[in-house]
Amino acid sequence: MSLNTHPNFWLKPLTFLYGAGVKMRNAFFDHGLLKQETFNIPVICVGNITVGGTGKTPHVEYLIELLRDHYRIAVLSRGYKRKTKGLIEACTESTVGEVGDEPKQIKLKYPDVRVIVDGNRRRALKWLLEQPVEKRPQIVILDDGYQHRYIKPSYAILLTDYNRPMIEDSLLPEGRLREPMNGRFRADCVIITKCPETMQPIDRRIADRDLGLYPHQKAFFSAMVYGKPRSIISGKETDLPSDTPLLVISGIAKPEPFHLYLSNSYLIAEKLVFDDHHNFSIQEIDDIDKKFRQQLNNNPNAAVVTTEKDAMRLAEFADYLSEEIKERLFYIPIKVKIMFGMENSFNKLIHQAASRTNFSI
């Protein structure tokens, strides 16, 4: 294939311009021309330098589980694809349109955690610190905040997908990198996510070497652990027989691991794939209902299964669903597992970061 017929050839000029702009922005922050603020509260940033699909929300939830018994926690998010503007504090009754699907998921799972959505996260953090002492968080988790450099985190966690390593990627729009690879050096630790549970120690050493981190940076590896299906309507856990035919709905950045897990555990009758953070329409809900009725005609034990994030959006259409589909509508919860016996080491680093208080405004 000649250069000028390569599918990404015409994206190279745009990639060059995008890269130049990002490098200039980072240089301005590095040299103090754009101001970063530090705060008198620990701020743990979880993010990536690629677009989508590294598992940020499950890792944020891992940190919440680890710290919630010791600290009052707040999570700051921009609330991607919400329909509102400005600063909003999520509550358990908030809709996806108001706060976004991931903030809603976090708030429903952890009602005691304050979840704030605001595109200007520096403003949101200042607002939190103005709250009465008894309501003020003791630690803030900055969700998807790696490029939000106006806040200088006390500890930065960078995520990279095992199945698409950032070292093999290129800048937008030719690739999926939000910023050049040297952005990884701002991280205190890097987690290679979505690793296969069968990953061998030799694969770990190769991946660790390829990251090329500084000596003070730590590398960890995590896998996604899928739980038992839960009803979207009642929240109750259930056991589905392995021969259950499934209508699978996914609207996430990289649905392939989810589909692989389901195909290894159940029978996938049909897959409906939507864009990440897809906002369902009433017509699409009606189509899903009709497709499921067809599945029920073939097998009365059929079920509809979706991701935990998609469940946040589908649940809001419960009034438009038939009783048949409500009874057989499930999501698969996921959580993160730190691999290779490194969980205690990782947890210790997080507790150390959470206990730091020597910051100034």
Describe the structure.
- By secondary structure, the protein is an alpha/beta fold.
- It has 2 domains: 29-224 and 339-354, Rossmann fold (3-Layer(aba) Sandwich), CATH 3.40.50; 230-332.
- The protein is built from 11 helices and 14 strands.
- 32% of the residues lie in helices and 20% in strands.
In short, what is this structure?
This protein folds into 2 domains: 29-224 and 339-354, P-loop containing nucleotide triphosphate hydrolases (Rossmann fold), CATH 3.40.50.300; 230-332. It contains 11 helices and 14 strands. It has helices at 12-30, 56-67, 96-99, 101-109, 121-129, 201-211, 256-265, 282-298, 308-314, 323-327, 343-354; strands spanning 43-48, 73-77, 88-89, 114-117, 139-143, 155-161, 189-193, 218-226, 230-231, 245-250, 267-273, 303-307, 329-332, 334-338.
Set out the fold topology.
Blueprint (H helix, E strand, L loop, with lengths): L11 H19 L12 E6 L7 H12 L5 E5 L10 E2 L6 H4 L1 H9 L4 E4 L3 H9 L9 E5 L11 E7 L27 E5 L7 H11 L6 E9 L3 E2 L13 E6 L5 H10 L1 E7 L8 H17 L4 E5 H7 L8 H5 L1 E4 L1 E5 L4 H12 L7
Parallel strand pairs: 1-5, 1-6, 2-4, 2-5, 6-7, 7-8, 10-11, 10-12, 12-13
Antiparallel strand pairs: 3-4, 8-14, 9-13
